[in-house]
Amino acid sequence: MDILQTIKALSNETRFNILEWLKHPEEHFSPQEHMPSSCDFKGGICVGSISAKTGLAQSVVSGYLVKLQKAGLLESRRSGQWTYYRRNEEGINRFIEQLKKEL
């Protein structure tokens, strides 16, 4: 894990908010009606729902989500035409532990 890449990903207020909202997706997003019942990606939220909450274009939000995923903070799953994102708790915990060691 590149700790600086992760810090940079968190330095944008909207990206930080997205990560915060995904901690309790049921409080911040409506049920994901497009997600098939066979999809076992609990807590996953589609890009469109995240885009609607931020008020930003889907292309901008997609870029933000990819940056958070590359930093190890999110994971994704594609189901049909939809891509769902959720927090990568293991990656977040690794980042926190690495930050404790280095600072």
UniProtKB/TrEMBL annotation:
<keyword id="KW-0238">DNA-binding</keyword>
<dbReference type="InterPro" id="IPR011991">
    <property type="entry name" value="ArsR-like_HTH"/>
</dbReference>
<dbReference type="Pfam" id="PF01022">
    <property type="entry name" value="HTH_5"/>
</dbReference>
<dbReference type="InterPro" id="IPR001845">
    <property type="entry name" value="HTH_ArsR_DNA-bd_dom"/>
</dbReference>
<dbReference type="GO" id="GO:0003677">
    <property type="term" value="F:DNA binding"/>
</dbReference>
<dbReference type="GO" id="GO:0003700">
    <property type="term" value="F:DNA-binding transcription factor activity"/>
</dbReference>
<dbReference type="InterPro" id="IPR036388">
    <property type="entry name" value="WH-like_DNA-bd_sf"/>
</dbReference>
<keyword id="KW-0805">Transcription regulation</keyword>
<dbReference type="InterPro" id="IPR051081">
    <property type="entry name" value="HTH_MetalResp_TranReg"/>
</dbReference>
<dbReference type="InterPro" id="IPR036390">
    <property type="entry name" value="WH_DNA-bd_sf"/>
</dbReference>
<protein>
    <submittedName>
        <fullName>ArsR family transcriptional regulator</fullName>
    </submittedName>
</protein>
<keyword id="KW-0804">Transcription</keyword>
<feature type="domain" description="HTH arsR-type">
    <location>
        <begin position="1"/>
        <end position="103"/>
    </location>
</feature>
